[in-house]
Request: fold
Amino acid sequence: MKTSESVAPALIVIVLGLWLLAEGNSSFPLRPEEHWPLLIIAAGAAFLLGYLLGAGPWQLFLGVLALGSGLVLLPFSLGLTPWRLLEGVWPCFLIAFGAAILAYLAATPVPPLFLLVPGLAGIFTGLTGLLYALGAVPYDPLQQMRSLWPLVLVATGLLGLAQALALR
Reply:
C-alpha cells in the first residue's frame, strides 16, 4: 500500500474526532442534526486529496461519489429544501454514481472499459429519472415505451458498439 492511500482515512478520522470534540462544546456553531452532510462532503474531499497526493483511482471514485451525495443532501438537512422533495431529486445520486465511475475510468492507467456502460447508464438513467421526477416529461409509461423504445435500442446498440471498439 502506498503511503498516499492512508491520507484519506487518516483525514476522515481526524475530521470525525474534531467534529465529536466540538459537538460537546456548547459554542460549536454547527448543529449535527442539520450539518451531518458536511461529514460526507469532508470525506469526499479527503478522498480527492488522497488521490491528488498519489493514491489509487478508487479514491477518486469515492471522492466524487461522496462529494456529489453530500452536496445533494446538504440543502435538505439545512432546511433550505423540504425533505419531501428528495423523492424528486433522488436521481442525482445515480448521476453522481455514474460520474464517479467515469472519473475512475479516466484516472486508471489501464481502465476496465466494461465499466463504461454502467457509468454512462448511471448518468443517462439519472438524467432521465430527474426529468420524470421534476415533471419535465409526462409520466405515462406505456406512451413513453411506444414512442421512445427505438431510441433505447439505438442507445443500447451504440453503447455496446463503443464498448466493443474500446476493448478491441
